[in-house]
Amino acid sequence: MSWPRFVGFSLLFVALSAAVPYFIHRQLGGEWPTLDGRLAAPSFLLACLALLLMYFLADATRLWFVLRALGYRVPLLQMGPLVFLNILVSNITPLASGGGFAQIWYLHRFGVPVGAATAATTLRTLLASLGIFIPAMLLLWFSPGLAGRTLHEGWAFTLGLLALAYLSFFALVLWRLRWLLMAVHAVLFGLARRQWLSAARAQRAYYIARREMVRFTVALRVFAQRRGPDVWLAVVATSVFLLALFSFPALLLWGLGYHPHYPTTLGLSTITTFVMYFAPTPGASGVAEGLFGLLFASQLARADLVLLVVSWRFLTIHLPMLLGVPVLFYALARRAKHVA
Which domain holds residue 63? Predict the structure, then answer.
């Protein structure tokens, strides 16, 4: 990505992140919330620190165990910077498209081949997707008391179908790769026949798609057949990561003096994260804040809603992004030094 686009997406992320809380504030009326003294209590700050450490550590180790299962040994300490670099880049690119490329580039510097790094990051994403999409589909379709009061029934069904299509794609890659390659070939060369795409570009795009799909299939089979604890530890680390991520709203509600129903907050957080996967804006900015406010509006007083939304995004996204800025510049500086 060029620097002008990088800066442009960053500004768009900031603008959308600020616009939705402002819109919620205008709709609810009242004064702008200030930092609540309850959120500065030592017990709450210690709880936040513990949950953040759990969140970051689980995020680092889930990719580390996937790499180990594939036969690659990257120092665990190098996974820490990768966490913040991934969160920074993925949240200022549409559909989180840049995070995977940043991770692949970073891992390649430590001797992991591009194909293996691609497979590892994709497997890491797939494990998290299974832990988000399957519960979200069940909640949207079979728990009207949780989702029906906040999302229109038609939207719930549509989102469930999108999740099913997402998971079906990976199933085709694993078990019916030839069918998927035939479909990709038909689409690309159909565009070439209509002169919407040159034949050379269609051929190159098909080659790249086939190469990456084959690599992913091989890596997934190696991962599934690998004996040893690394595979199960990757699953456990992913579960801990998702549990920590979905627990931030409950922690914030507790800090504001509420007594949230923990399973309900986990379910609402799962649905929020699930919808964010399909948001076209950088880092799901705007969409995330709006949906989160809509889902949690009935859990607390109106006066505290904007504070909850802003605090949730700060802890889960903005703080890691701020930590990722020096990591990015340090990595780029080291790359420039090696090139020179």
Answer: 3-30+39-175+226-339
Q: With contact defined as beta carbons under 8 Å apart, do 96 and 283 qualify?
A: yes
238 to each of 14, 142, 332, how far by Cα in Å? Answer: 28, 25, 29
Question: What is the three-class DSSP state of 282?
Answer: strand
Residue 58 in tokens: 């689980």
If one counts the domains in the chain, the total is: 1
The answer to whether 20 and 302 have CB atoms below 8 angstroms apart is: no
Is 323 part of a structural domain of the chain? yes
Reported as a single tens digit per residue, the pLDDT across 92-130 is 766 555 566 778 888 887 778 877 788 888 888 888 888
Q: For the whole model, what pTM was predicted?
A: 0.80
Does any domain span residue 114? yes
Token code pair at residue 68: 């180990």
Tokens of 233: 């530890």
Q: Taking the CA of residue 37 as centre, how many other CA atoms within 13 Å lie in the half-sphere pointing to its CB? A: 0
CA atoms within a 13 Å half-sphere pointing along the CA-CB vector of 320: 27
C-alpha span between 215 and 97 (Å, rounded): 19
Q: CA-to-CA distance for 198 and 144, rounded, in angstroms?
A: 49
Write down the residue that tokens 């798609």 correspond to: 209
